[in-house]
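Lest this sound abstract, we let one protein speak, letters for residues, whole numbers for local backbone shapes, and leave readers to judge:
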Amino acid sequence: MSRGRTFASDNNSGIHPEVLAAIAAANDGHVHAYGDDPYTAEAVAHLRRHLGEDVVPYFVFNGTGANVSAITSLMRSYEACICPETAHINMDECGAVERASGGKLLTVATPDGKLTPELIEGRIWGVGEQHHSQPKVVSITQATEFGTVYTPAEIRAIADTTHAHGMWLHMDGARIANAAVSLGCTLQETTFGAGVDVLSFGGTKNGILMGEAVVFANAEMAPDFLYVRKQSTQLASKMRFVAAQFSALLSGDLWLRNARHANEMAALLAEGMGALGGVDIFQQVQANEIFARIPAEHVAALQAVADFYVWDESDSSVRWVASWDTTREDIDAFVSAAQSLLSGQPAE
């Protein structure tokens, strides 16, 4: 059955044909389980080529699993992780980090989803005081949950502040490819080259079936992660099928093509919708997400054209997300329907 494309989430898109082909190619004969196989070794080599020769990657099933296992490996139960209020680990992971680590999330209000050194400094208090959770990790998201992007200089400033307090810097890179494309820089430049200690490297939103990677800056950082991953139920027995997808993304430029296309489609959608009266795009469109306020009475009718999520019902703000398979025809149809609705005409 053929189904229309939507703007609800880049998780809703299908699998890129080149990734499907890689999965099929890996389905040949027997190899050792749990990552002791040539497919995993190849994918690790590709990650090191993009992120740095010293990095240590581990494959997991999904983004929540990557964030939870990464942060759990960095802090103890009496410690805490500083993050924006809008962070996925705070808003959309059902308290998984806190449940798994026993630690606490210390959230910070931000206008655009981005932390700054000043905001981090303001959340570091009670150090050495036995009544308070001890700050140990800072977590940022690239691109953020508002679709905004940290520059490498901004990440470096955060890393310097974090490290000066003896803390670790974690990056949720669910849309790391989109951020790198937006910045015009390499994956390494926007992660470990800017001072990140551990990265949740996203693939699911960039055209693969499932799977993410937890990547540490070096081997000394993660001596026990094998056990954390297993205890977090994130160790795949048939690891080759997760790894083969990353090789498909990273062996050539598929990661780049997919992210660039998604970003371009988001820019096109923002241009079309932003030109309409009654649409207020209230965050910078830097990657593949658009945040806008539209008249509440038109939300349901527009969702019938192409599904999307309401971000905040109180002010009728919504989120539109472009994917690797979004087309110009999808955008034209959506903008045309919005134009009809906002001008008082029925949408076709």
